[in-house]
Specification:
Elements (H helix, E strand, L loop, with lengths): L23 H14 L6 H10 L2 E6 L5 H11 L8 E6 L2 H15 L7 E5 L2 E3 L6 E5 H10 L6 E6 L7 H19 L31 E6 L5 H6 L4 E5 L6 E5 L7 H15 L4 E5 L3 H16 L8 E6 L5 H6 L9 E6 L2 H4 L6 E6 L2 E8 L4 E8 L2 H9 L7 E5 L3 H6 L14 H9 L16 H13 L13 H7 L4 H12 L3 H11 L12 H9 L7 H23 L1 H14 L4 H20 L11 H11 L4 E4 L5 E3 L5 E4 L12 E9 L3 E9 L1 H7 L1 H4 L7
Parallel strand pairs: 1-7, 1-8, 2-5, 2-6, 3-5, 6-7, 9-16, 10-12, 10-13, 11-12, 13-16, 15-20, 19-21
Antiparallel strand pairs: 3-4, 14-15, 17-18, 17-20, 18-19, 20-21
The structure holds adenosine-5'-diphosphate and magnesium ion.
């Protein structure tokens, strides 16, 4: 940090968007005052008291009331870390875990990673002195693998429980069990849970009597209905934190919009040019949409008279580098307006001060799984009423606001009341793998708040068998299943890495899997489509998108290394960003992919997998892809569309694919995306005969059926 706390630097006049020179004393005073004025501040004592009295407590409160940032501090000050245990707070989203941890560290006046830290997949910002630890729900599940009693925690707060992500639901069930075990256990019986070999021996937290301290469990939710959670936790007490909400004017369009992006763009400028001061928050479905609107806003802004150009654009999505994520909280300088382009991260997970106008196209991207096909896809669907209300509520936190819903009022009435929990609409193989690793073999019998669909469980189990992760007794196979459970990836990707070490192409597969973990590597502004084609072509491989991604990664590393020796590290990174821009590559995504690569490389090294390279022999890599993603194989039809072999579904190759025109006979794909049509994305050419050879468990028998 470039803030030297011992020597406050004073400066006068101009309000600077970059707070580097802000007087830290003034800033601390301001933060203190902000904290005191939060609705939750008035019930601090009562909350601490309730946690003391109840082992399980449900806290319900309006978004922005201060639950996430304040409660952990109250508990810390209330002595809940005195027994040596720490406070863990889970979030469904990485962005929330990171930004909130940074904020709380600042509120506490400590360096991030010391008393206050965060831990998310591929990034750990904690130390042995961390007492308040924000993390994703998925990460706590992984910790449970190494420490089934989560013994280092004295309190676990499951935040944003209303989101009902699949990881949250699994976690709730697991924590219920952990709580029971912790109350029963003492040193003498502490080995009864030790059904799996522990990687490292976490010291358990015992009180003077030698008993592990009980686990305090707090479920926090923004939905006002606490009944479901309360019932699930045996009638646990629920407390409500009152929020403060100003009236929000809701405006609807007269007609349904055909082009939501365009409608959002027009509305942004309408607000910017016609409405009074206040920031704009726009809800978009993902990184790609956000970046394309970002480009459009910039273009249009340039065309305005200079006096009207005072609009600052802030994207907010999960794979945004974390320095960039924090920028969104910086207040706009006087005379400027902010427009925040966010995914539904901004719906309840993070609250950005200053928002007065909300633009809600009424859509959200979700996971969707059909047990019939056994394939998961990402689809954009209408929000529920509850989500629409949350979104409009964001406009009325600091004063009266306006919400522009980009759909007619009649549509609102037809929306579902609330969102279906994710566990009802996703592929469960990852959950099953994780629970098996925790010793839970009977998924159907697991104490879920809401049971997953039986068919979905069966299909997901089937997939794990096909991947060789489970034995006939539904136990994790050794070593494949065990290794897959240890990797922080989807089962298919884990399998690809494990197989790649046998196919002598793990080096390449690490790159491919990392590149596939980020949303979009190429970024092409609308007005540069033609130009971009020629440039992108220089990376493209006739074999498909996986190899193209590999080429991009290799070219970027080569560029970076060469530049580093010539110009030093910092300059090289800067030059790389320029290189990315020239090559229509999304430098944010590429950077993220590089981080992921480093992490999973470390993971597989620790597991002892052999990392070797196939060099230019890409045949090996493609065979390995076929052997891992065999369920996602498709055959060309006479009309040029593709038929997914596993279920007969018909799809087209996505326009961004390098195989869009060449039309290979047989392909494997990474994602299935459903918009108005079915698209397969990230596609590679394979030989049909490889399927029977490399995935006989799936294709040898089915051959005569097709
Ligand atoms: P809740 O969890 O009840 O929705 P939060 O604890 O997330 O509420 O937010 C409380 C307040 O803290 C809000 O006013 C929000 O704007 C503010 N806040 C949170 N993170 C930051 C940040 N990084 N910078 C500035 N303010 C923040
Ligand atoms: Mg919160």
């Amino acid at each position: 940090s470039n803030n030297n706390n011992n020597h406050p630097q004073f400066k006068s006049g101009v309000n600077n968007a970059d707070n580097k020179f802000d007087d830290s004393f003034v800033r601390r005073k301001k933060i203190e005052q902000q904290r005191r004025s939060l609705p939750i501040a008035s019930v601090e004592k009562r909350l601490v008291e309730e946690v003391r009295k109840n082992d399980t407590l449900i806290i319900v409160g309006e978004t922005g009331s201060g639950k996430t940032t304040q409660l952990p501090q109250y508990l810390y000050n209330g002595g809940f870390c005195q027994n040596g245990g720490i406070i863990g707070i889970t979030q469904p989203r990485r962005v929330a875990a990171v930004t909130v941890a940074k904020r709380v560290a600042e509120e506490c006046g400590v360096e991030l990673g010391q008393k206050v830290g965060y831990s998310i997949r591929f990034e750990d910002m904690t130390s042995t002195s961390t007492k308040i630890k924000y993390m994703t729900d998925g990460l706590l599940l992984r910790e449970a693998l190494l420490d089934p009693k989560l013994s280092k925690y004295s309190v676990i707060v499951v935040d944003e429980a209303h989101e009902r992500t699949v990881q949250t639901d699994v976690l709730l069930g697991l924590l219920k069990g952990v709580q029971k075990k912790r109350t029963q256990s003492s040193i003498g019986s502490s080995n009864s849970y030790d059904h799996m070999k522990k990687g490292n021996n976490e010291k358990e937290r015992f009180n003077e009597a030698g008993k592990l301290n009980p686990l305090k469990l707090i479920i926090m939710s923004a939905s006002l209905d606490a009944r479901g959670f309360s019932e699930y936790f045996g009638g646990a007490k629920a407390v409500h934190v009152m929020g403060r909400q100003f009236p929000v004017d809701i405006l609807y369009t007269a007609q349904p919009e055909t082009d939501c992006l365009d409608a959002a763009l027009v509305t942004i400028f309408q607000i910017h040019l016609e409405e009074g001061p206040g920031d704009i928050l726009v809800f978009l479905s993902g990184q790609e949409e956000i970046e394309s609107i970002e480009g459009l806003v910039r273009e249009n802004l340039k065309k305005l008279p200079e006096a009207n150009q005072k609009l600052l654009i802030f994207p907010l999505f999960s794979s945004l580098p974390s320095e960039k994520q924090m920028k969104v909280f910086t207040p706009a300088p006087v005379g400027f307006r902010k427009v925040i382009l966010a995914t539904n991260i901004a719906e309840t997970s993070v609250t950005i001060p200053g928002v007065k106008y909300v633009i809600d196209p009424g859509l959200v991207k979700v996971r969707s799984y059909s047990p019939d096909s056994g394939i998961e896809s990402l689809i954009v669907v209408k929000t529920s009423k509850a989500q629409a209300l949350q979104r409009s509520g964001r406009a009325g936190r600091e004063g009266p606001g306006k919400c522009f819903r980009l759909y007619p009022e009649s549509r609102f009435e037809g929306l579902d009341d609330s969102t279906v929990p994710e566990i009802k609409r996703c592929n469960l193989s990852n959950v099953i793998l994780q629970l098996s690793a925790l010793g839970v073999d009977d998924i159907i019998g697991f104490d879920f708040m809401e049971k997953p669909d039986r068919m979905a469980v069966i299909r997901s189990l089937e997939l794990l068998y096909l991947l060789g992760a489970l034995t006939d007794e539904k136990k994790l196979s050794d070593p494949i299943g065990q290794q897959m459970a240890r990797l922080p990836l989807e089962p298919n990707d884990s399998k690809a890495l494990i197989l790649a070490s046998q196919f002598d192409c793990l080096e390449e597969m690490l790159i491919v899997v990392s590149m596939l973990s980020v949303e979009s590597i190429f970024y092409v502004p609308r007005d540069k489509l033609e130009e971009s084609r020629t440039v992108i072509k220089s990376f493209s491989s006739p074999e498909g998108d996986h190899l193209t991604l590999l080429n991009v990664y290799r070219a970027s590393v080569e560029f970076l290394e060469k530049n580093k020796t010539e110009n030093g590290s910092d300059k090289a990174e800067k030059n790389l960003r320029k290189w990315c821009k020239d090559n229509f590559i999304n430098s944010r995504s590429l950077k993220h992919a590089r981080d992921i690569y480093n992490q999973i490389r470390e993971n597989v090294e620790r597991m002892g997998l052999k990392i070797s390279s196939c060099g230019d022999d890409t045949l090996q890599l493609r065979r390995c892809l076929a052997a891992s993603y065999f369920l996602n194989a498709a055959l060309k039809q006479p009309d040029g569309t593709y038929r997914v072999l596993a279920n007969g579904q018909i799809a087209e190759i996505h326009p961004t694919s390098v195989l869009r025109r060449t039309k290979a006979e047989c392909i494997i794909f990474y994602n299935l995306v459903q918009t108005t049509r079915n698209y397969v994305r990230n596609v590679t050419r394979i030989d049909y005969l490889w399927l029977a050879e490399l995935a006989p468990q799936c294709y040898a028998l089915k051959d005569d059926k097709s």
